[in-house]
Amino acid sequence: MIKRYLVMLSVAAVFFALSANADVVLKDNSEILGKWKVDAESAKLDGEKKKVIVEWDFRDDGVLMSKATDVGGRTLEMNIPVQYRVEEGVIKKQVAPGREKFETCKVVEKTGSEMILKCPFLFYFLTKL
User: Fold this and answer.
1) Half-sphere exposure (CA, 13 Å, Cβ side) for 85?
2) pTM for the whole thing?
3) C-alpha distances in angstroms, 104 versus 14, 31, 55, 82, 92?
4) Handedness of CA 31, 35, 39, 42 (dihedral sign)
């Protein structure tokens, strides 16, 4: 009896752990269209966040315009257009302009005007503008 209870408890714990970390599945790009401020980036979801001055504009024509501001550098502001699309519930975006390589970014959390993306190497914490 105790053994069966422990097995059921283990299965329930796994179920709740998986459901708590379930990614948000996007229907199409209409859920992300517009300008987003990238507040921070981090190697881990619950890790130390590095503040950045970046704005992403998901356009309806499949272009993600990234505007980065470097307050202490020589460039001051850089605008970088890359292609993106929403496919199978995730965002697929060009790694760099003109390259055929795309990376997959999953929406980990999306509530109101806040969104967290998990890309291959970083988590991005965004706020809708």
Assistant:
1) 4
2) 0.79
3) 26, 16, 19, 13, 5
4) positive
Sign of CA dihedral 34, 38, 52, 106: negative
Q: In which residue are the tokens 């504009």 written?
A: 57
- Beta strands (DSSP E) in the chain are 34-42, 50-58, 63-70, 76-87, 90-94, 102-111, 114-118, 123-128
**Low-confidence spans in the chain with pLDDT less than 50:** 3, 5-20
Chain-centre distance for alpha carbon 91? 8
Residues listed for the chain: 129
**CA separation for the pair 95, 47 (Å, rounded):** 24
- Which of the 8 DSSP states describes residue 24? B
Q: Output the pLDDT for position 76.
A: 79
Give the separation between CA 79 and CA 59, rounded to whole angstroms: 14
